[in-house]
Design a protein that fits this description.
Distance between the termini of chain B: 13 Å
Number of helices of chain A: 32
Oligomer: heterodimer
Number of helices of chain B: 2
Radius of gyration of chain A: 34 Å
Helix content of chain A: over 70%
């Protein structure tokens, strides 16, 4: 953290009692060529301000900072953040307006994150302004930004109206409303987007009459903007506006616009409606949901654009299911992307529907999806099996599950195989030992000799998790013999897999199995003709060492490691020596 | 330009006048910004030069002096690179420059080579902080024991400095060569286009782009068509057009679907069987497509013509202008020297009433859409002095040659004008002739 120029820190140490010195370094480093040092100094800005005192902070430090907007984004971002917490350092709320000029210039830079942070800090310090200061200093700044030449400043203004509105006189309030109106019809879409995204927030602080008169007309205008990038933001605002209005006004003031959005020509707007569906539903209440939203939602599920259908499918959970079910069935006949989105949520429905409904309506869908041609759809079903298990028990599915799993396990794409391996422990837990031994064990062993390393690695890890689940005795009977058998495989990669498995399993299997069954195999492999196997023996011994007792370590492990330490191969030597130094052999 | 082109004055020629022209100096793109105050050029050496118009001065003899363009900023935008995976050299040549709408006091432009688009910020600085605690004015380290008070740096005025900084690098999205970029009217996104794909980017996000058009066939053997250029509609943020090597233009509506592989309009002129030849397909390939400023028309340039299309009429162009029809008889030799594959650009004037495009022998052409008059002008050092008036040129085919006419056989095909740009509001044009940039403007008064 305390990264500083070399000579400076030496001098600092030599002259430690001079308290000005570290501050002097910090101030100078505000302009250091190294951005990391500048950033460090900016992050300690409060230390500098404390040392300078409130007076000099106001008259010297802040004017300097106001003009440092040439810096890198990360420095500006840190500065914008610091200034939000600077009130006490400039002399308390009485002087808080001194922070406005630097934040104002930060609110006009091109980098959105910096501008947003500056606006956030401005919002924060607005609360520290007295009502008078708010009208004398803060509100003029908002106006300046709102009528600025560049759209960066106008976009920043949009986020400031709502914080000053509740605390100013009614004349100023009228001005603020006027400014907001102007920005909603700004020439540049950037500004209209900023206004649209703050519309809901602004509506919340407005008096209800003005919400009805001003906000609704702005909302309607933005929702029919020529640019779809603006229209889609109006959908978001719709949620907050609808919450503010009494139920009887919703139909006339909000619904026409919302209906229009759900049928917008642009898929991005419809997508937004689908995506915000749950929020919209809450905001408009049950009556309108039933009459208006549900039909609209059904259309979105059938939308011609896959992205929209997928967003809608994702929101199926929590909908009125008797209405939705026909449409869920319909989705089977649409494209992959949507099906896989549906598959990821459909399993969750079983908890809502209960046992009987699940068996009647959803089970056929699960089964159909388990046979889907797209592996992603099948995976999404399998990965959410736990929800169904709770409701109907997995046995209902097991007959269909198995072929699906086997097929995925042998998929040509290794990433698909990898994904199914990751669900194995979960499946094993739900299907039980018997079923596992009978049907899945072979698969798990086959992955150990997969030709892709990532699969072999995952298979090893999978074995460890299975042993954790089923216990050491099960491991000794079913897994360990097969793993150890691979030590004699002609392929050295398979021999190495034995070692990797032993690394993973020794701890879960415990001292007895490790010492009696695994260790002899490992030791024997120290004579392997392939150097890679030999140095992995050294690594394995280091790994399983802690599980072994001292006797085995001294009489069996030590001689072998010493032999390996004088191996011809450099790497074998290296890892043997490393093991010797790590294990308590002396 | 009320096409009194013959009385045009040369305002400012050979800004980039070098006695020796190295390959790297060849200008590869020119572009005015939206106000016309700045003009950017890119070259084969990966450099971008930005020119700024001098402030207009009202002078005493009440004759207004129009501002000339002076170098404002020069920077190295792209460096040569090597793709180690494919063993390919990536040239630093700037294929296109596009200005962003102005958002604050700084200027922003996108520049692209074959693979990587970069967003540049060009900003001014006229103040410098002064005063250190640990050093004195001459930069000597002060004895720490003498530091008894703190100094806060003070900003002092200094000579204007123009800085160019790379703000974003958009890379790794194109397998083929980027031929065009276009900024959307939503001020938020842009597209980059290569031979087979159009990618949509958010200007603030560099690690992700959306592929909105992909014409790559499953089997590359079946490839018959490539994308040659693409542009966003000037007002409708959801519409863009792309042109193809087969002479067609597709208009896509991004509202319809996330993937625009289905076009909503398809502009193509049926081929005239009587002129069909071996070269038909090559010369019908569109090298540039441009929306008119009002968004009603599309202009396309192919090897021999410029065409104007009405967006409401897909089956044939509204207007067709012959750029250098006298080359029709020389296609064979133009094929042999590869000139037939030259990619000429075309531009509209500010009011969409005149169009301009380049030709060979340092000639460029202008067509007035209303009067149907056209003119051939020459950008060359020999024939033009600063503030001289450009004379119209004429090319004749074979036979007798009148005075001032040039025979088609004596045209110099190595001197080609591929890149031109027109000031957005005024009659000022910039013409790139290999390594020279010529700026011409309408005669004053």
């Amino acid at each position: 953290e305390e990264k500083r120029a070399g000579p400076a820190s030496t001098l600092y140490c030599a002259d430690g009692d001079d308290s000005l010195y570290p501050i002097a370094v910090l101030i100078d480093e505000l302009r250091n060529e190294d951005v990391q040092l500048r950033l460090n100094s900016i992050k300690k800005l409060s230390t500098i301000a404390l040392a300078l005192g409130v007076e000099r902070t106001r008259t010297e430090l802040l004017p300097f900072l106001t003009d440092t907007i040439y810096d890198e984004d990360e420095v500006l971002l840190a500065l914008a953040e610091q200034l939000g917490n600077f009130t006490m350092l400039v002399g308390g709320p009485e002087y808080v307006h001194c922070l406005l000029p630097p934040l104002e210039s930060l609110a006009t830079v091109e980098e959105t994150v910096v501008r947003d942070k500056a606006v956030e800090s401005l919002r924060k310090i607005s609360q520290e302004h007295s009502p008078v200061d708010l009208e004398v200093h803060f509100e003029p700044l908002v106006k300046r930004l709102a009528s600025g030449d560049w759209f960066t400043s106008r976009t920043s203004a949009c986020g400031l109206f709502s914080v000053c509105y509740p605390r100013v006189s009614s004349t100023v309030k009228a001005e603020i409303r006027q400014h907001f109106r102007t920005l909603c019809s700004d020439d540049t879409p950037m500004v209209r987007r900023a206004a649209a995204s703050k519309l809901g927030e602004f509506a919340k602080v407005l008096e209800l009459d003005y919400v009805k008169s001003d906000i609704i007309s702005l909302f309607t205008a933005l929702a029919s903007d020529e640019q779809d990038s603006v229209r889609l933001l109006a959908v978001e605002a719709c949620v907050s506006i609808a919450t503010l209005l009494p139920q009887e006004d919703l139909e006339t003031l909000v619904m026409p616009t919302l209906r229009q959005a759900a049928e917008d020509k642009s898929w991005r707007v419809r997508y937004m409606v689908a995506d915000k569906f749950s929020e919209l539903q809450k905001a408009v209440g049950p009556e309108i949901t039933k009459n208006d939203l549900v039909p609209a939602f059904q259309n979105l599920l059938k939308d011609c654009e896959a992205e929209v259908r997928a967003a809608a499918a994702n929101k199926v959970k929590g909908k009125r299911l008797n209405i939705m079910l026909p449409f869920i069935r319909l989705i089977q006949y649409t494209n992959q992307h949507v099906k896989s989105a549906l598959a990821s949520v459909i399993m969750g429905l079983s908890t809502i529907l209960g046992k009987d409904n699940t068996i009647e309506h959803l089970l056929p869908l699960f089964l159909a999806q388990l046979k889907d041609e797209c592996p992603e759809v099948r995976l999404n079903i399998i990965s959410n099996l736990d929800c169904v298990n709770e409701v109907i028990g997995i046995r209902q599915l097991s007959q269909s599950l198995l072929p699906a799993i086997v097929e995925l396990a042998e998929d040509a794409k290794w990433r698909v195989r990898l994904a199914i391996i990751e669900y194995m422990p979960l499946l094993a837990g739900q299907l039980g030992v018997e079923f596992f031994d009978e049907k899945l064990n072979t698969l798990c062993m086959a992955w150990l000799i997969d030709h892709v390393y990532a699969i072999r690695e995952a298979a090893t890890c999978n074995l460890m998790k299975l042993v954790e689940k089923f216990g050491a005795e099960w491991a000794q009977n079913t897994i360990v013999p097969k793993v150890l058998g691979m030590a004699n495989d002609p392929n050295y990669l398979h021999r190495m897999t034995t070692l990797f498995c032993i690394n993973a399993l020794s701890e879960a299997c415990g001292q007895e199995i490790t010492t009696k069954q695994m260790l002899p195999v490992v030791l024997k492999m120290s004579n392997d003709q392939v150097a890679n196997v030999r140095f992995n023996v050294a690594k394995s011994l280091q790994k399983i060492g802690p599980v072994l007792d001292n006797n085995a370590l001294q009489t069996e492990v030590k001689p072998v490691l010493e032999k390996l330490a004088s191996d011809q191969d450099m790497d074998v030597k290296y890892f043997a020596q490393e093991a010797i130094s790590v294990l308590p052999l002396a | 330009m009320e096409e009194e082109s013959d009385t045009r004055k040369i305002n400012n020629s050979f800004l980039r006048d070098h006695n020796y022209a190295t390959e790297a100096d060849i200008i590869s793109t020119v572009e005015f910004n939206s106000s016309g105050e700045l003009l950017a050029t890119g070259d084969k050496g990966g450099r971008v030069v930005v020119f700024q118009r001098e402030q207009e001065v009202e002078n005493a003899n009440n004759s207004q002096r129009r501002g000339e363009y002076n170098v404002y900023s020069t920077f190295q935008s792209h460096e040569p690179e090597f793709d180690y995976l494919k063993s390919l050299e990536i040239e630093e040549k700037i294929n296109k420059i596009k200005w962003l709408p102005q958002q604050n006091a700084a200027y922003f432009l996108l520049s692209t080579n074959d693979k990587t688009v970069k967003l540049w910020k060009i900003s001014e600085r006229d103040k410098r902080p002064e005063g250190y605690n640990l050093k004195d004015e001459d930069g000597r380290i002060r004895d720490p024991s003498t530091i008894t008070s703190l100094r806060v740096p003070v900003l002092q005025p200094m000579d204007l400095m123009v800085e160019a900084t790379a703000r974003r690098v958009f890379s790794n999205a194109h397998t083929y060569h980027i031929n065009s970029i276009s900024v959307n009217s939503d001020h938020q996104t842009y597209i980059s286009t290569d031979d087979l794909q159009v990618n949509l980017w958010n200007l603030e996000i560099t690690n992700r782009s959306f592929n909105i058009v992909d014409i790559k066939p499953a089997n590359m053997e079946e490839l018959t068509e490539v994308i040659t250029s693409a542009e966003f509609h000037p007002q409708q943020c959801h519409t863009f057009a792309y042109s193809s090597s087969k002479g067609s233009i597709r208009l896509c509506d991004m509202r319809q679907a996330a993937l625009c592989d289905r076009h909503c309009k398809y502009f193509e002129e049926p081929e005239d069987p009587s002129t069909r030849s071996f070269f038909s397909e090559i010369i019908s390939s569109i090298s540039d497509v441009k929306f008119s400023h009002n968004g009603r028309y599309l202009m396309t340039r192919d090897y021999l013509t410029v065409k104007v299309w009405d967006l409401q009429m897909e089956n044939k162009p509204l207007e067709t202008y012959q750029v250098h029809d006298y080359l029709r008889g020389k296609l064979c030799s133009l094929y042999e020297n590869d000139c037939i594959f030259d990619k000429f650009e075309c531009v509209w004037n500010g009011s969409d009433s005149v169009i301009m495009t380049g030709s060979y022998n340092n000639f460029f052409r202008m067509f007035d859409r209303n009067t149907k008059r056209d003119v051939t002008l020459e950008a060359s050092r020999e024939n033009s002095k600063p503030r001289a008036i450009l004379k119209p040129r004429k090319v004749c085919i074979g036979g007798k040659r009148r005075k001032d006419e040039i025979s088609v056989d004596s045209l110099d095909f190595s001197k080609k004008i591929l890149h031109t740009t027109w000031h957005p509001h005024e009659n000022i044009i910039a013409v790139a002739a290999t390594n020279n940039l010529y700026i011409f403007q309408d005669k004053v008064n």
